[in-house]
Amino acid sequence: MKFLRFLLFPFAVLFGIVVFLRNKFYDWHFISSSRFDIPIIVVGNISTGGTGKSPHIEYLIRLLRNDFKVSTLSRGYGRHTEGFILSDVTTSAKDIGDEPKQFKNKFNEIAVAVDAKRANGIKQLLNQVEGLQVILLDDAFQHRAVKSGLSILLTDYSKLYCDDYLLPVGNLREFSKGAKRADIIIVTKCPVQLSNEERNKLIGRINPNSFQTVYFSFIKYGELIRLNGNKEKEQTDYLSKQYDLLLLTGIANTKPLEEYLIDKVKLVANVKFSDHHQFSADDLLDVIKKFNTIASEKKIILTTEKDAMRLLDSDFKELLVDLPLFYLPIEIQFHNDDQTNFNKQIINYVRQN
């Protein structure tokens, strides 16, 4: 692995120079950023792979929606469309992408839009959504064509950006110094129990600027929901040692979910696809075949909420109708006093702007 990194190092340097110059052109105002007279909160990262952007966007929606008129704006990664789309209840994951579809599915009362050109997307939202008061920009930390009011950078507890390398050697989209643009840094996917000593060590490694606040969040798993059923709580405890489980995923990082499940069920068999994978008939037939090889009569298929959005919109979803297929929703929670302080910082920013 070290030898491979050595071979790729010149490409990482070249990539880093290009990204560095791009950022400097924005810093020096050679390239202009659009400004808008509305609170704009960016949630993003400087790493590839899953750092938990979607559940953190959902946390912000829950925090703000009762007092402010909220919209999300995403690129719509993996969609089969182009341009600006303002979703409604009939809009599919193919139209807007799986993550925006998840937002609309859970929070129908808010405006959920997609546009690869975020500045245009904001203009369209302001024209089409009356009384809009705050926009949440999903995965837009590097999208500097828009000047955000408050930027939130996420970094995975098990792979801090400060310990990573530039693409293609590592997973960084830009030099780790780019994190200094963030107003808030959240260390995500932390253990449920996190000591003050560990927190201080992590803050020391991140070495934030004086104006930056570091928070720590962890994943809270919800109740199983049957994919083709209602959203009521299941009466049977499927996540128990009585059941075998086939885990079907198309997300960037399955490790936290696997660790959560390993002590709960008898067996965890995995069928993994790439992030945002569009499931084909052959994919689903292979899943069914593997599920049928599990000898136990007490067995289920489990997927993530993001994958469920694509499965529900699949042209081949009828193949799954008779299967015990569930998804596991997640939320994030903050450690210790972080929740109170984070909520206060977000609400104060929106009210003041």
Protein described:
It is a single chain. With 353 residues, the chain is an alpha/beta fold. Strands 3-4-2-5-1-6-7-8-14 form a 9-stranded mixed β-sheet, with helices on both faces. It contains 10 helices and 14 strands. The chain is 33% helix and 20% strand. It folds into 2 domains: 2-68 and 133-219 and 333-352, Rossmann fold (3-Layer(aba) Sandwich); 225-328, 3-Layer(aba) Sandwich (Aspartate Aminotransferase, domain 2), CATH 3.40.640. Helix 9 links the parallel strand 12 (299-304) and strand 13 (325-328). The protein starts with a helix and ends with a helix.
Summarize this, please?
The protein has 353 residues and is of the alpha/beta class.
Keywords:
nine-stranded mixed sheet, Aspartate Aminotransferase, domain 2, five-stranded mixed sheet, 33% helix, alpha/beta, 353 residues, 2 domains, Rossmann fold
DSSP strand (E) fraction? 15-25%
Helix content: 25-40%
In round numbers, the mean pLDDT is 90
Number of domains: 2
Total strand segments: 14
Calculate Rg over CA atoms: 21 Å
H-E order: HEHEEHHEHEEEHEEEHEHEHEEH
- CATH architecture tag of the largest domain: 3-Layer(aba) Sandwich
Report low-confidence residues grouped into runs of 5 or more: none
Tell me the structural class.
alpha/beta
Instruction: Report, as a whole number of angstroms, the end-to-end distance.
Output: 48 Å
CATH fold topology of the largest domain = Rossmann fold
Tell me about the biggest sheet? 9 strands, mixed
